[in-house]
Amino acid sequence: MTTTSAGVAPKTGTTGRVRVQKFGAFLAGMVMPNIAIFIAWGFITAFFIQTGWTPVGVLGGFGTTDGVANPGVVGPILTYLIPLAIAIQGGRMIYDIRGAVVGSIFTMGVILGSDSTMILGAMICGPLGAYLVKQMDRLWDGKIKPGFEMLVNNYSAGILGFGLFMAGFFWLSKLFSVIVTGLGNAVEFLVNHSLLPLASLFIEPAKIFFLNNAINHGVLDQLGAQQVKESGKSILFLLEANPGPGLGILLAFTFFGVGVARSTAPGAIIIQFFGGIHEIYFPFVLQKPILFIAVILGGATGVATNVAFKSGLTGPASPGSIIAVLANTSRDSYVGVILSVILSAAVSGVVASFFLITTRKRDLANADAGDMSAAFAKMQASKGRDANAATAGLFAGASAPATAEEAEATIPAEVPGSGAGTTTATRVENIVFACDAGMGSSAMGASVLRNKIKKAGIEGVTVVNKAIANLSGDEDLIITQQQLTDRAKSMNPTAQHVSVDNFMNAPQYDEVVEQLSHQQ
């Protein structure tokens, strides 16, 4: 089993990449736990607004009741519930419940001081308020006389919250309104001048690297939600979630790829198109960077189709499965949305097929199929996290360190009965799979190991999955993808750390089970 030494420092060349990873992971950490609210709100919008499936004035916000205009619930949910939920989650990530409380007070000031939707404001004010109360508490940490702790804690947070509320209401709300209005006007300009497809020049490459969370949750969700409030749907929810470009790439490899790429593409189609795990096709593009042209053209085609048909979704499609896309499609947009998926897949597939056919002889001669493992490792390095357990299961061959430096940074240790294992200084009872968001791939990895432990008849060991940011320090053994091990160790340096290349079928799991069996 592979562990990394606690004394190994991250290479300086990765500092910038790690910072961007952390930023994207932090945004995802605020929004992803609240996606269910977006989905529920999307359904309420799709069914009950005036142009919805089953219009209901008191819910959709149209018409009158007893001579009084119906305010509806669509606007209040977007104005209050969604921003506050994001702010609470962001504050909790910084300073637990106390941070969540102060962050929500700060955010409420911004919400009430502006006519714009303050999702962006919540993503800033929630964590910022939590950070400020955390720094304030440090000023008198250990200096409060016994019996006065509750008084000081409550009033200090209340006074700080009061000040932040005033600042948010009178000043920051105006700043965020200008930013949101400016972004909205920019999008409107692109739509009115049929330039929105150009966004694919940035969005499609960003998806394959590491900026999709920052783009999707930092910008598109905010602007898309505002458009839904105004018109009942938004094209912006389709810019990143369209599964068509990835489907086209995988179809091209299915028919014209070589070796392992061709054999794995059909299975990847099911995972990507129906499961919504777009990361599955990233290694195929990274294997041949010229295929960036294919995904950009495919994405632009899908956007152009939606612009032409004026189609959109009522809420974010997360994950980007065709099922989620259709479930959130506006009542009048099914033709445009379905055509956008078909045409984007067709364009990316045709362009990718052209490049694959023209290089087929060279690929066969150079045994190019063997590059898939390297492409997968490259993707993991660029994204800085596990791509996905399903992805890893298809490309299980990428198991060697990507560089000599990484090989030197891995230090094997003995496990009883195993040639290469992990340290056994402490009894292992709490095993955690950790990734960026702590939801998708780590959950599947935990399920795999949990089943192995159950089959081995081992009891008294818990296996859970968490986001790295939520590691508490009481974990006995932490399993992460190689690129994330340094971050996990900074959260809990005393635990055993196991680095794997994939969460789905890593050989280290059998060694973990063997270690556990020796401590029974």
From TrEMBL:
GO molecular function annotation: protein-N(PI)-phosphohistidine-mannitol phosphotransferase system transmembrane transporter activity; protein-phosphocysteine-sugar phosphotransferase activity
Transmembrane segments: 25-49, 69-88, 118-134, 155-173, 247-277, 289-309, 334-357
Recorded catalytic activity of this chain's protein: D-mannitol(out) + N(pros)-phospho-L-histidyl-[protein] = D-mannitol 1-phosphate(in) + L-histidyl-[protein]
Domain PTS EIIB type-2: 429-520
Keywords: Cell membrane, Membrane, Phosphoprotein, Phosphotransferase system, Sugar transport, Transferase, Transmembrane, Transmembrane helix, Transport
Protein name (record): PTS system mannitol-specific EIICB component
InterPro entries in the record: PTS_EIIB-like_sf, PTS_EIIB_2, PTS_EIIB_2/3, PTS_EIIB_mannitol, PTS_EIIC, PTS_EIIC_2, Sugar_PTS
GO biological process per UniProt: phosphoenolpyruvate-dependent sugar phosphotransferase system
Membrane topology per record: Multi-pass membrane protein
GO cellular component: plasma membrane
One Pfam family matching this protein: PTS_EIIC
